[in-house]
Amino acid sequence: MADAKPEISFIGLGAMGFGMATNLVKQGYKVTGFDVWQPTLDRFQATGGSIATTPAEAVKDKDYCVCMVATAQQAQSVIIEGDNAALSSLPKGATLLLCSTVPCAYVQGLEKQLTYLERGDIRLIDAPVSGGAARAADGTLSIMAGGSDEALEKGRFLLQEMSDPKKLYIVQGGVGAGSNMKMCHQVLAANQILAASEGLGFASHLGLDLHSASQEIIKSDAWAWMFENRLPRMLDPEFKPVASALTIILKDTSIITSEARRAAFPTPMTNTAEQVYFSGLGRGYGPDDDSSLIRLYTEGKGKIGPVKGLAENDESKLALVKALLRGIYLCSAAETIAFAKRCNLDLDQVFELCINAAGGSAILQTVGPEIIKLARGEQISVGDSQGLKEHAQQLQEAIEEAQRLKVPVYLGSQALTLTQFALQFSSEAVGNVPRAAVARVWGI
Amino acid sequence: MADAKPEISFIGLGAMGFGMATNLVKQGYKVTGFDVWQPTLDRFQATGGSIATTPAEAVKDKDYCVCMVATAQQAQSVIIEGDNAALSSLPKGATLLLCSTVPCAYVQGLEKQLTYLERGDIRLIDAPVSGGAARAADGTLSIMAGGSDEALEKGRFLLQEMSDPKKLYIVQGGVGAGSNMKMCHQVLAANQILAASEGLGFASHLGLDLHSASQEIIKSDAWAWMFENRLPRMLDPEFKPVASALTIILKDTSIITSEARRAAFPTPMTNTAEQVYFSGLGRGYGPDDDSSLIRLYTEGKGKIGPVKGLAENDESKLALVKALLRGIYLCSAAETIAFAKRCNLDLDQVFELCINAAGGSAILQTVGPEIIKLARGEQISVGDSQGLKEHAQQLQEAIEEAQRLKVPVYLGSQALTLTQFALQFSSEAVGNVPRAAVARVWGI
């Protein structure tokens, strides 16, 4: 393999796929790309790639195929159902990496379809990625890969070419496990992208200076990767540059909620985020950067008549914003870990992935391991850290101030409800209740 | 009393107060009115009332005072704290009816303030009303009155003059009980006003003819008083006439959620409605009729790219809308009854009030008595009626279709989450689970 690198076909040369495919070209592979958008093919050819005019033509005689289209519908079309779909031309025993973010249900169904179509010889790897276009082009993505041992063995070199060595997660559980892993990470993403807008929108209504307040937040236990990452664009009057459109996170959000319904597993936080995302879409914000959702929170400022909060100085106002964010992050963490447990994922691996990726938060770092202990039936104690009652009290004060200022706090309000439920379940407990116990709402 | 009708002072001549006060004039009482808005005083004088320039002047030498200002803050000002407040001039042993909708906490605090201020002689009646301006002027309001036996005895004739005899509810529990009763009714109002917009907005995205679909809904088990009442204005392109502004229901909604937090009682449905109301306020819809919130659901129609639902004909689309509405109404009913139980109200009386008032729905009529049985620890069976699992399945299909159409369904989504929680609690139950069991989420 080191001497004669195998030929690769690459279907789907969008923002991510283009970077991934050109990286493989740079690494010395002969890559034949396909996309429906001719200018992209021309660009790919200019970087040294070969091109094909149909998926079938692209995959012909190549033992490896990477598919990086946008949706499950597109994957179904280019692999199985569309004109000149790949399937009939895929060589016997070919390795197929589906890197698109799709529902677990889809990729498991794809595996079954291959069997029914008498193409069980194809080695399918379910390998969604995360990390953005720049890391795609660098070959330093995070990849969560599931499949048979044989398929993973065959495809490992490709996974390694595309990923950061520390961020290649081989997920136990076969095809679908990679998609489930990515989905659970996206629970954090879906909630924490919106939390950034909700938190900074609340700060705006409180009258805080957003630049200095947000720097304080980033240094505090209310830090989250998404808040820090979205901050410059939230503060830009035009929410530019567009780094990740609302439609992107909405697609992932809908995968979470539909898979959760399929499992009869409640995802109250993500459901709430999804409704707000739909409202943003209805406002025409779909193509805009997701940081622009702060508009949904700030648009009423100064136009809703006289309102007066109780917080009198910047310190107490900042404390309210942080309490709101911590409240959301705690419930996001609990929803993520509980859902990962339901999906039979290795919770230590989920934690490691999330804490080192876009789902990271200081709350996840602190409380996540405790939630995982609870999920395993181990005992935990509140120790010296903040208890759930104090946490709830601080969140409640934030929600009350938001009510006085007449600003919506969709996620914060939902988080308080869930925290109240958790405290009711724990009413018989002696002494203080640890924060991780909020996860009892999700059946942990 | 029949021969010499007592003099009445009346503070607060807004839309409701003006009608109530002029009705008392028509009934032959000498009524002295006060309001901060001079043109209103002139109008009141023209109908035969007397007028005063301060609260203190209005109440002087009158054994009865009705206070019908808009908020607790205003009540505190005109009765206790403001310039020329009523308190110092109220005769010894006067009867004071506070008819404003205020938090229970406020009116109970007012009772304490009177004691501390050595005016425990004043007979305070907590008597919020409902029914709108027309019924105020007719003397056929619904009134929910709490107070000491002595105060209620003294004030009964006034309560009777202002109310429909079938809709005067003397609520056990002293001062505060009337406010709690009204608050619990408003849980239904807060949710079902928004449900009307959410349901018809969903119908619009489904492509249903809204006129015929809504007539079908009104005839069905998805009927609610609020839907029928708001319908003409939802269908009017300008949402006219303004019968009840968004700011009005938002005020009541915030009373519910703040009182619920004070009791550490979760109100997930009303919390959700409140956030959407705040978003409407931020859009500048505060003074508009609350039926105009349908705009928050329909604004994206046709502008969010290609979407396609699964429902193929009008019958199946209508079934989805009805399932959405029933799902919301069931959780509204459970939240209402559970909160009423927490407030130690007589649940039969709550039911009688709600079913005959603006909170009524076909679901409340059917399932409400079963929830009340559960609240009393009585056994219920699913019998021949629909079970919770089937109810949840139908609601889930509606939520899934809304997701395909990319339309927000804030209340429906929350209702599904709560129904899922309830089914988890009931997972050990043998056989079918009755719909009323959804109330277990609220600790019933």
TrEMBL record, chains A, B:
<dbReference type="InterPro" id="IPR002204">
    <property type="entry name" value="3-OH-isobutyrate_DH-rel_CS"/>
</dbReference>
<dbReference type="InterPro" id="IPR013328">
    <property type="entry name" value="6PGD_dom2"/>
</dbReference>
<protein>
    <recommendedName>
        <fullName>3-hydroxyisobutyrate dehydrogenase</fullName>
    </recommendedName>
</protein>
<feature type="domain" description="6-phosphogluconate dehydrogenase NADP-binding">
    <location>
        <begin position="7"/>
        <end position="164"/>
    </location>
</feature>
<dbReference type="GO" id="GO:0051287">
    <property type="term" value="F:NAD binding"/>
</dbReference>
<dbReference type="GO" id="GO:0016491">
    <property type="term" value="F:oxidoreductase activity"/>
</dbReference>
<dbReference type="Pfam" id="PF03446">
    <property type="entry name" value="NAD_binding_2"/>
</dbReference>
<dbReference type="InterPro" id="IPR029154">
    <property type="entry name" value="HIBADH-like_NADP-bd"/>
</dbReference>
<dbReference type="InterPro" id="IPR036291">
    <property type="entry name" value="NAD(P)-bd_dom_sf"/>
</dbReference>
<dbReference type="InterPro" id="IPR008927">
    <property type="entry name" value="6-PGluconate_DH-like_C_sf"/>
</dbReference>
<feature type="domain" description="3-hydroxyisobutyrate dehydrogenase-like NAD-binding">
    <location>
        <begin position="176"/>
        <end position="297"/>
    </location>
</feature>
<dbReference type="GO" id="GO:0050661">
    <property type="term" value="F:NADP binding"/>
</dbReference>
<dbReference type="InterPro" id="IPR006115">
    <property type="entry name" value="6PGDH_NADP-bd"/>
</dbReference>
<dbReference type="Pfam" id="PF14833">
    <property type="entry name" value="NAD_binding_11"/>
</dbReference>
